[in-house]
Amino acid sequence: MQIDIVRPDELTAAQVEGWASLQGADTRLHSPFLSPWWARSVAAAQGTKANVKVAVLHDHGREVGYMAARAQGGAAMPVGAPMCDYQGMTAEPGVRFDPVALVNALGVGRFDFCHMLDGQDDFAPHVKGSQTAYSIELRDGYEAYAKARREAGVGALKDIDKKRRKLERELGPVTFTAFSRSRGDFDTLMGWKSEQWKKTGQTDVLGAGWTTKLVRDLFASRDPMYGGMLFTLHIGDRLAAAQFNLRAHGAINSWLIGHDAAFDRYSPGLILFQDILRWMDDTPYWRLDLGAGDYRFKRELANATVQVGHGFVGGVSPAALLRSAAYALRQAAESLPLGPVSELPGKAMRRLDLIRGLR
Predict the structure, then answer these.
(1) How is 80-141 classified by DSSP, letter by letter?
(2) Would you tell me which CATH number, out of the four given (3.30.565.10, 3.40.50.1370, 3.40.640.10, 3.40.630.30), belongs to the domain 140-285?
(3) How confident is the model at residue 16 (pLDDT cuts 50, 70, 90)?
(4) Is-contact 288 277, C-beta < 8 A?
């Protein structure tokens, strides 16, 4: 298997079409984060110094797989990390490759990943741990989905209906907007997210220059195949909840979500989720990805799950040895009955990777 490396802006129109065609043929790969457009938009936001690369797999002269990564020093990570919820190679069914050869082609000592999509067989031996990612599939429409949730004994949608009636009874009707072009509402949502991260002591992901440019570029995009989409819920003239999501093929990825805390008792964020799902009935979109994270609303709304893994691929290099030692420490700590203390090495690794990705 030959592996060529090109920059995202060097991809020809035929290569972009070939990549998109491979992705579109496999519904498991419909995530916008696995698309050629994501690689290009991240590279444009990060600039040429970011060293974003695309690995192109060749089999007897045919291009059969594509994956983007960002090289930093002696290591690489998925393009757009830490803002990409799914990672992996987009390739023809049955294509196999050597991940170590991929690392060598990228010119680094190792490749770190944190949300490797299940089913990526060549990366599977390098996965150190995994978590569940949730999604809502509407193959037969919203009503069929809602019925199946009720039959499964999940009362979340019924509770949302009650909250909606209570809200409208006490405050008046709500207004749902899909593909909103309101710059004011978009800016409000970005402010909510930054404030949320600060209040919870987390890193403000939107505080990095490239992440802000990426999100704003995606909001401004008019590409019919891929881009950002702002959904809003208003109570009167006041924004109550909003989501800025990504779309590609048949999938929408729930990405940046927030709401006005003044309306907490009405759960406007969940009402907005329900409105998005109903709206999807009349669109080409059939899956709403909620991503990883063990939250009650994800467990109750989701009707499909997939595992996403973290780990690394390394050759013989100092960078790989360093990562291997870090994982050894993490796995030793997690095997001990020390409560929250056992989680500290893993948290430290994730935070360092977050900081690396935002630079």
Answers:
(1) TTTS-S-B--EE-TT----HHHHHHHHTSSEEEEEEEETT-TTTGGGEEEEEEEEEEE-TT-
(2) 3.40.630.30
(3) very high
(4) yes
Write down the CATH superfamily of domain 2-132+309-358.
Gcn5-related N-acetyltransferase (GNAT) (3.40.630.30)
- Fold equal for 2-132+309-358 and 140-285: yes
- pLDDT winner (highest mean) among 230-239, 311-320, 340-349: 230-239
Q: Kindly give, in sequence order, each residue whose CB lies less than 8 Å from that of residue 337, ignoring residues fewer than 6 positions away.
A: none
How distant, in Å, are the alpha carbons of 64, 68, 90, 113, 299 from that of 106?
A: 18, 10, 17, 14, 38
In whole angstroms, how far apart are CA 174 and each of 13, 183, 232, 238, 313? 43, 20, 10, 10, 49
d(CA 240, CA 291): 23
Mean pLDDT computed over 316-336: 90
The label of the residue with tokens 């929408």 reads: 252
To which H or E segment does residue 228 belong? strand 226-235
- Check residue 127 and give its pLDDT: 97
Confidence of residue 95 (pLDDT cuts 50, 70, 90): very high
- 3-state class percentages of the chain: helix first, strand second, coil last, to nearest 5: 45, 30, 25
CA 115 to the chain's CA centroid: 8
Instruction: Please measure the distance between the N-terminal and C-terminal CA atoms of the chain and give it in whole angstroms.
Output: 33
The overall longest dimension of the chain from CA atoms, in Å, is 67
DSSP assigned state of 72 = E
Q: What are phi and psi of 306, to 5 degrees?
A: -150, 150
For residue 249, the 8-state DSSP code is T
Q: How remote is the C-alpha of 285 from its chain's centroid?
A: 16
pTM: 0.93
